[in-house]
Each structure stands twice: as structure tokens, then as C-alpha cells.
What does this fold into?
Amino acid sequence: MDFTLDDDQRLFRDTLRAFADREIRPVAREWEASGRYPAEIVEGMRRLGLFGLTVPEEYGGLAVDMVSFALVFEEISRAWMGIAGILGSHSLACRMIADHGTADQRRRHLPDLATGARRTGVALTEPSAGTDLQGIGTVARRDGDHYVVTGRKTWITNARHADPLPVLVKTDPAATPAHRGMSVLLVDAAAPGFQVLRDLPKLGYKGTESCEVVLDEVRVPAADLLGGVEGRGMQQVLSGLETGRLNVAARSLGIAQAAYDEALAYAARREAFGRPIHDFQAVQLKLADMAIKVQAARLLVYWAASQADAGRRVDMEAGMAKTFASEAAVDCSLAAMQIHGGHGYSTEFVVERLYRDAPLMSIGEGTNDIMRVVIARALTSGRAVIG
It folds into this structure.
């Protein structure tokens, strides 16, 4: 077994790390505190071609392997996790369009999305429907060669910049089971009746907007039904979420790695009783536990990504990586704060931001409790074997 990156992946990682160190890390604390939108960083990611991560080369994208995909989110999140969110939702939506869109939809949307000339996201969650997507209330009624969409979405990343915005709707609210009546529409954000109400206040995950969106009798051309066939929305979304969970797992890994890096460096320069605090066993134990969790998370994330590259279904593998890495991020950010002592509670130190960003990783793209159910179902069905 070879657990190392190949030459191309190492070069890609080094390029990403240099970009993050040069353009993200120096401004992260100040821009997060002020609520400033990171337009310059977005432009830098556009120049690197990162908006085309999941877009096929024939449409101008990078079509990177999934290990390289994970590296993007790991390296950017080491500097500022919120920035990775801008790419995460965009990449998920691009994958859905590339995998499930009609030839016309791919031709119309993917070239601009690949270059970042346009961006996108995905609108799934509603005020009363998160984990239970079959419980959404957004309805699309067919009216000639259009759908008329009414509903409300929440926690929508990139909502102010998405063009188009894939929206999960019910085209047949009476269908049983409910998923058979669900579809995805590619909604033009400039359409009358589409409104972004507000940016939701958040504990962490700053740098990208998370918005409430209202669709009030929005008319969407039938040509913008993803895939051209009603009733396939849930399957399209779930296949995309496998990619989404890999990106959240990699973001979690980036947070955990950053927490470890900060703790190790601080423990070397901070002295107590005339000695660096890394000489004290209590600190050494924390550092060792952090290193174990970071490296175990990395192996799980890269393993899940490599399985996706092999063309395998990875709902269990991505779920394992996302669950373990996100919990490692929470544990490591808290341990880093404890090693910093009082300084760890100050906004002048990076670990305070890591501590606020980490919890979202165990919630986003499916809570870790749901991930455990997904894993267990794969095991009990016999589809997956451990050992």
C-alpha cells in the first residue's frame, strides 16, 4: 500500500499552500472580525482555476481527482475555513450539473462556472426541513413551458452570487414516497420573485454568506429542470452530497491540522517555570493525542477520496471520514485552546477562530448522527465489509 501523494498531487498541494499562506492567512483575522467579503481571495481562487474542480475538461474545468479535491479544502481550511465554503457549495452544484444535467444545461452553464465568471451553490435546507429533505415545502407547479416555484430556503451558501442556483423542490407534492415527487430546478437569481432576505448571524463560518432565500411565484423555464425528467431530484442531490461530505471531511482535517500547528508552535515558545511548556507531560499528552487524531483523520479522508477515484460508491467511506475528521477538529481546536491558556480565548490568536469554526463540521452535509446511520446501513446490508 502507498499512503503518499504522487508528484502531481504534491505539486498541487504546495501551490495551494503557498496561495493560502500568501493571500488568505495574513488577512483572515481582520476580515473575519470586520465581516468583509473576501472578494480578492475569490479572485485569486478564480485565477487558480479552483472553481472548475468538478467541471469536466471539455467545458474548461480541471476535473481533478478526488484526492486533489480534498487537498484544496484541507489547505484552504488550514488558513480560513469559511473561504473553503465558497468553493464547497459551488463544486457540489457543478458536480450535479456535470453528472445529471442535459447536454444543453451543461453547455449553457459549465464553461462560465468552471472559470468563476459565474458561481453557484445549492438550495436544499428549509426552516422546517434539514436532515429530512423529503419534508421540504417548496413546490414547483407546472404552467405550460415553465414551473412556478414557491417556498423558502435557509442556510444557503453563495446565495447572493449563485447564477444559477439549483433548488430542490417538489414537482409532485402528493407522490408516495415523497422523494419520487422531488426535482431540482436551476433557478436564475435575477428572476422576479427570487429574493435573498438576509445573511444569517453565525458563531463561526465567516467569510461566506449563509442566507435565507424566498421564492415567491418564481417562473423557471422547463428547460432548467435538472436532467429534464421530474422525480429524480433526491437521487441527484444524494449523489452530489457524497462529494460534499468529502469536502467537509477535508475542511475538518484542515481545521484539526491548523489547531495542532498552532498548539505545537505555542508550546515551544511559551515558557513556565523557566522551561518551554512542551517539556511538561500534561502538554505532551495533549500534543500526542492531537497528532494521532490529525493523522488518522488524514488517512480516512484520503482513503475515502481514493475510493471515489476508483469509481466506487463512497457513502460509507465519506461518512466515516466526515464523522471522524469533524470530531477530530472539535477535539483538536479545544485542546489547542487549552494549551494556549488564557491567550486561547483571545480573538488575537488563531485558535479562537478554529474553536468557533469546528462545530459546524459535525453538522454540515448531514449531522454525524446521520452519518453513523449511513455507515451502519452499509454494514448491515452487506454492501460494505470491515476487516
Q: What stands out?
A: The CA atoms of residues 95 and 161 lie 18 Å apart. The beta strands are 139-143, 146-157, 165-170, 182-187, 194-199, 210-221, 271-272, 275-276.
